[in-house]
Amino acid sequence: MDLYIFASPYRVTWDYYFLAREHTLEIKEWEGKAEYEYVKNHGLSIFLLQAGMLGTLEALWEVFPLFTNTGWGENSNIKFLEKHMGASFEVRPQPFVTNVSVDDIHSGDFLAVSKIRGRWGAFETLEKWVSGAYAGHTAVCLRDSSGKLWVGESGHENEKGEDIIAVIPWEEWWDFELNKDDSNPHIALLPLHPDLRARFNETAAWEYALSMAGKPYGYHNMIFSWIDTLNGNYPPPLDANVVACVMTIWSQLQPEYAANMWNEALNKRLGTKGLDLPEVLVEVEKRGSSFDELLTIPEQDYWTYSDGKSTSCIAFILEMYKEAGLFDPISSSVQVTEFTIKDAYILNFFENNSSRLPKWCNDGDTVKLPYCQIKGKYRMELPGYNTMQPYPHMNEKCPSLPPKYSRAQNC
């Protein structure tokens, strides 16, 4: 049995066929003249789920348990990443939590977080698969004028259950990760290189962090750091048509959420205002372009959305690094909203002399990582860590296909 999905910017429907013969799909009524004109000129997008009913159910069975907050779900996330990314999960010697001395943590030090269980574990697993990052969340350390240690984080859940940008005391952040985060987070501290630390402008970093505190997490530009090329960022069976199809479904089911996720960002790329997804797709066609080309237009750090500047967890940190002077003298030609988490941890901003790492770093582990893993049963791997010098227009046109996630030079 073959399953087919039929989509326009205005609808998504499906049908299945047992027999090999000519089949007809009847659409009884158009969603107004706009859909009629669009389909008349461009047709419907048609997707064949080539695995058939059984294969489709098997694929759903592989993805469904990723979201369950159980040991089964955790093992499913691990197996998915091993199978589709080639990731390895080597068990570390106990203790799985490091006795951290906060005196050895400095402003600008980077926190890489990998969650492997429950809803956030599943979303991070899929994010890792499409982007090639071996971490799914990030935060950054800051010291105030009195020496107190804080953590800046885009994606901190407030009392209302909203994901916002927040600056919270280290002890509060660390206590949550140790005792309240049910996603089984694995955490590594990536200390800045001493030369970069000397350049880090704490005053400018604090000004930026406080100006962003309380703003929503950067949903507007989250997917655009991943999509840089026409076809070099989509793991099979994904492509731009599938993305458009998913957006269409989501826009119909949750129009407000969809508008927050991509409508404003797509309008920014077109130089328009207020167009919904169907109108965006029609406008792209009028201009002789295509939706896949629209998705590749780089995000601009200066863009301001209806609820303010928009930064994902990693864009928040790298924008702080820009404000603190770490990207000088090329700061004006780097758009950090185009960076994935992998793009960040491969920057050569971090300590490269293991003798300067804190004494408690990787304490008790038989493998001495070049960074400090401070929590987690499995050893965190960050391929390409600390190897790449930043350059103008970095990461604006980079492919990222599994399992090697090879990138073109100076993309």
How does the overall form come out from the CA principal axes?
A: globular
What is the CA–CA distance across the termini? 43 Å
Structural class: alpha+beta
The residue-averaged pLDDT reads: 91
User: How big is the Rg?
Assistant: 23 Å
**Helical element count?**
13
Order of helices and strands: EEHEHHEHEEEHEHHHHHHEEHHE
Query: Strand fraction band?
Result: 5-15%
Largest sheet descriptor: 6 strands, antiparallel
Largest beta sheet: strand ordering: 7-6-5-4-8-11
Protein name: Inositol-1,4,5-trisphosphate 5-phosphatase
Organism: Glycine max (Soybean)
Question: Can you walk through the features of this model?
Answer:
The chain has 411 residues and is of the alpha+beta class. It has a domain at 65-216 and 348-373. The protein is built from 13 helices and 11 strands. It has helices at residues 32-42, 52-63, 71-85, 118-131, 170-179, 194-199, 202-212, 240-253, 255-270, 277-286, 291-295, 313-323, 341-345; strands at residues 2-8, 11-17, 45-49, 110-114, 137-143, 149-157, 163-169, 186-190, 304-305, 308-309, 372-375. Strands 7-6-5-4-8-11 form a 6-stranded antiparallel sheet. Strands 2-1-3 form a 3-stranded antiparallel sheet. A two-stranded antiparallel sheet has the order 9-10. Helix 7 (202-212) runs antiparallel to helix 12 (313-323). The protein is globular and about 70 Å long. This is Inositol-1,4,5-trisphosphate 5-phosphatase.
